[in-house]
Amino acid sequence: MAELTAPDAPLTHRRILNVAVPIVLSNATVPILGAVDTGVVGQIGDPVPIGAVGIGAIILGAVYWIFGFLRMGTVGLTSQALGAGDRAEADALLARALMIGFGAGLLMIAAQAAVFWAAFAVSPASAEVEALARDYMAIRIWSSPAAIAIFGITGWLIAAERTRAVLVIQLWMNAVNIVLDLWFVLGLGWGVEGVAFATFLAEWSGFGLALWLCRGAFKRPYWRQKARVFDIVRLRRFASIGNDILIRSISLEAIFVSFLFLGSDFGNVELAANQILLQFIHITAHALDGFAFSAESFVGQATGAKSARRVRRASVMTSVWGAATSIALGAVFLIFGPLVIDVMTTSEEVRETARVYLIYMALVPLLGAPAWMLDGIFIGATRSGDMRNMALLSAVIYFAFVFALVPSLANHGLWIAFLISFVARGVTLGARYPALERAVASG
Prior knowledge:
Number of domains: 2
Number of helices: 16
Number of strands: 0
Largest sheet: none
Helix content: over 70%
Shape: globular
Radius of gyration: 22 Å
Distance between the termini: 33 Å
């Protein structure tokens, strides 16, 4: 695989698609793994293992999600270094990302007792499910250094426009996990522990493959130059960006979590309908991520080259693809949404209720695309402070509309407030875009 398209090469639609399409394909494989894990333990014929694998995976996924800043920060800083022609700094960033990711994983291992206790305090389960979930997590926690470090490697590869390598890593990990799932659980009868060991080995083998795909960087001397890698100014900048992105992510998660919790106040039918419709958001995110990641890479390279003109071109061209994708998704949701709802549930009550709220879900790609694309643009430019502030403001606006609309409009009010949160983030980030260009122009 090519190391890198020259950062100063003309930006074309083909170049954008070369980055975006592998990401979309990679994201599309993610739900398959969860389905196989569930299906394999489902063959045991006992609901407890299914619940244990489900809750264990959710807990570890939520904890790993905290370290998503590692991917975002690495993309922005690495793409800027490449845009500036500073290969030494780009390679040093790979070393820093590996160091931070591996260190965070070791911290997870050391703090596993506290992590498990806190998780089950927030989301209690039956004694049988909790016991098996603890066994599952106690095995998987030992691959957390690999799992978290892969975030950093993924960011570094995206910055270098090597998203095919990201797809290869994802496909490899999924394939290893699925094959070992079948062998350990159905062949050897290891149950929940078999699923955990399969993921453990898949993550470590994926980490090994990721390192091999970055071998070009390790052939150069920069990644092991201690003075460069441990430069205190650059480490502080990385920490500052990571802190901003973490606060931004927590703000957005508060919106999604509260949407689920508040939906439960309207009864089981509305809750189930909301949960089904939220799956459409995952589809939207997977599709738009490809173009948002493209924006991260190309805007970052243009920022590193201190070219406001190239920043604007990258922002516009990637956003055109994001807008086209969002329009297509909205139309697909409206046309085929009822069929998908019928496939996802056999309850006529839930089906009818979900159809009532389907129009809101069809509007999510259209109203949310600016927020998704601007996130990518601001990540590439490492304007993390703006991302943090606008996410916090959007959360405040969302909760204000929740309190204003839900008492009179019930679940309709909740959906309207949810849509407004996307609009608020897009509008507020858009208002900050001119400042982004001015900052790039001023160097």
